[in-house]
Structures are given as structure tokens and as C-alpha cells.
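Researcher: Next entry in the queue.
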Amino acid sequence: MGVEVIVCGLGPAGRAVAHRALAAGRDVTVIDPHPDRVWTPTYAAWADELPEWLDSGVVAAVDAPTAWAVGEHRIDRVYQVFDTAALQSALTLDGATVIADRAVEVDAREVRTAGGLTRTGQVVDARGLARSAHRAEQTAYGVVSARGELAQTLFMDWRLDNGADPDDPPSFLYAVPLSADTALFEETCLAGRPALAPEVLRRRLEHRLRARGIALTGAEPVERVRFPVQGGTPGGGRFGAAGGLTHPATGYSVAAALAAADTVVTGGTVWTPRARAVAALRRAGLRALLALPPREVPVFFEVFFGLPAPLQLSYLSGHSDLGGTLAAMRALFADLPPNLRRAVVTSVIGASGR
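Model: Structure for this entry, 354 residues:
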């Protein structure tokens, strides 16, 4: 069966690699302090990002979403929301050795745990990223409620009916159906250093939903989100968010991890030179976004969602599509108002000088 695969961390990224390694007939050990912990976040992905091996039954809802910036934009692309419990159950670990412990020293060939165990093999470090004041974060506060008048999936809704001032740090509404009767409504700070606090997002969400005639009882299930959107480093056996698979412009990483799992299992490289170049361009895009005046953020996304669909796809999902990513960034820059072009150039020059 070859070298044992040792996976540290059993979030979606780690569990996907362990599952696919088992399917390939590899010996697998998984190490996590709480290996049976139930996943609670809501995950979603573009349908064309997902690997063919994934069970179609893990999808809870399918729709083509809408983005609101200055105006309304229909995104001509299928968007899927996972049934989180079904996704976790589908990534079975039957046959793996499960160690309930914390990995404390990890490199590409060896792991040592807090309990004193040492294992050697092909190590996959999928423990995620620690928070840091130096890393931009995404935060969100959401509730699962009756769908009400929600007629469409809202990928991003930057309309200013959440009670915030135009010059306050911005946030948008993310709203996705979870069933025929329920939906997740989530106020999201896309990226901030520091990001908006959950309490601020809670007040904005409640204000926004009241403005749209959606009444809350106070008994709705709550979802809180906080994670870094920068800081992942390819190499050293790192994978998922730890390995740089989080998209800095959206915070998405689950689909990228699912799609890359087989490559890791077979010893291939996820980070080709073209993929590394794309990642560097996206990091530059995040710096530009963080530098924008708050009231101009909807204008930025008005231009982005006005790009041709293939260019949007390249920037949002083209892990190694260097040509498409460059074309998308050139087209975006060309269409931005002059003041936003200056902000983008200043952010890039400032970063290169540090």
C-alpha cells in the first residue's frame, strides 16, 4: 500500500484527503483532538469547481445567484449549498486509524503529538490557520430563518439598508436557501484588518432584515464566522487553508480542497508555478480591496460583476488559470473609475515597498 498517509486535522480539507487516500487503498492515520466533532458551518461552492467523485447527495440547495452592488447582476453560474451533515458523512473514514490527540510538531514526513506519539509517512497538515492581528479576516453573523420573501440566492448584496453609514467599514448580505422553507441570512465582512465584530454584524443584519420585512423571533439558530483570509503557505505538507487554498477575494476553500485531494494523495503538486502566480495576483487583489474607501467598495464590485462571465470565473475559481486571472484583473482595472484606479495602484506600490 506504500507510505502511510497521516492527516492532521479533520475539517473538510483533511477529511477529504483522508477519504480519498482510503479510496486509493492507502494506509491512513488521522490525528485530531476531537475527531468526532460535528461540523456546523454552512459551506457552498460553484458547481463547476467540485470533483466528479463527490456524492451529489451532499448538496442541499442549487441556484444561480444574484449579486447586488450599485445595481443587480445575475451570475450565470450554478451555485450549490452543501448539506453540511451529509458532506461530513459522505467523506467516510472507514479503515483509517483514528488518534484523538493534538499534533504539536508537524513537517512533511513526521508528526509528534501532545500525547507523545510520533508517526512518520506522507504528512498532510490540514489544521487550518491560527488568527493573527497581522492577517485580514472574514467575519459573519447569520441566522437560519423562514425564507419569507427570499426569491433568489444572494451571493453578495452590498445595498445600504443595514443601518451602516456609507463611510463605515462595509458589510454585505449573503442569503441562501437551505430547504424549501428555510434560508441562511448572513451579514458578512468580506475582509478586514481588523474585521467587523460579530455584535456589529448582528445589529446590521437585524436592521437589514427588518427593513425587508423579515421578522425574527430570537429563537433562530445562529451561525458565527471568523477566519483568516490570508496567511496560508504552500509546501511542507500543508493543505487546505493552512496550505494557501483560501481564496482571498471570497474566503472560499472547501471546493478547492475537495478538488485537490486526489492530487495530494497521488503525490502530485497543487502549487504549480502558474498556480503560485495566480495566488500572488489574488493576494494583490486583497490588498487593493482592503485599501478602498468604504463607500467605494460597492462601486468596485459593480465593475467586477459587470465583467464577462468567463473573466469572473477565472478570477473566482481558476486556481492555475494565469492568463484568465490576468485578463480579469486588466479588464477590472480598465473599467474602474480613476479614483479607484489610484487606490489600487497605491496599495500595490505600497506593498511592494515593504
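Model: The chain has nine helices and 17 strands.
Researcher: Noted, moving on.
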